[in-house]
Design brief:
The structure is a single chain. The chain is mainly α and 144 residues long. The chain has a domain of 92 residues. The protein contains 6 helices and no strands. α2 runs antiparallel to α3, α2 crosses α4 and α3 runs parallel beside α6. The radius of gyration is 32 Å and the shape is elongated. The N terminus is likely disordered.
Length: 144
Amino acid sequence: MTNAPRLLLIGALAACGGGGKAPPPASPTPPAPAPTPAVDEAGAAEVADAFVEVLATMVQISQGYDCKAMGTSLGQLFDRSQPLFDQTLTLAHDPESSKLLVAAMNARAAEVDPLVEAMGPGLVRCKDEPSVMDAMERMPTLNL
């Protein structure tokens, strides 16, 4: 081999990392971890239980005949429950958390349905009271 091809070979080897060593394999980029829900099953159960408590309190409030007091009490309940409502809306926007929350709420349907029925007569009785109407307009609804 003459000097020119040898120099070309040496130059090519140098450009490719030379020395006949293979470059170390590039470590593969690990896949992105699956998104974790903002809440786990236990957390979803706590949220669902808190909603059941709100509904049970609404039943107690709706049993009275003083419609103005009912409106005031419902408004106070919703004020106290606002952090729960905010948390639930946040969870509802996360697909995995939403699934867990729906399952937790569905598991309590036998408890929730009678509560909703029990509060109905009192709310209907006071449907024309402005404070009741205002409070009920503030009550959040979730489409889970």
